Amino acid sequence: MNRTDTTSPTFTPPGRAWYAVGVLLLAYIFSIMDRQILTLLVGPIQKSLGVNDTMMGLLHGFTFAAFYAIMGLPISRLIDRGNRRVIIAVGIALWSLATAASGLATDFWHLLVARTGVAVGEAVLIPGAVSLLADVFSADKRGRAMGVFGAGGPLGAGIGLLAGGLLLGVFTASPAVLPVLGELLPRQATFVAVGLPGVFIALLMLAVPEPRLAGAARGTPTQGVPVAETVAYLKAHRTCFTAALLGVGFYTLTIYAWAGWTPTYFVRELGWTYPQIGKALGVIITIAGPVGVLTATGLADFWRRKGIAHANLRVGALCCAGMAITSTGMVYAGNPVLTIVFLTLAASFSFSLLGVGPSIIQDTAPAPMRGQVAALYTGTLNIIGAGFGPVAVGLLTDYVLRDPSKVGLAIVITCVTAGTIGVLIFRSGFATYATTRAAAAEWREKTLVPAPAPTGVAPAH
Question: Which residues partner with 182 through β-bridges?
Answer without folding.
Answer: 178
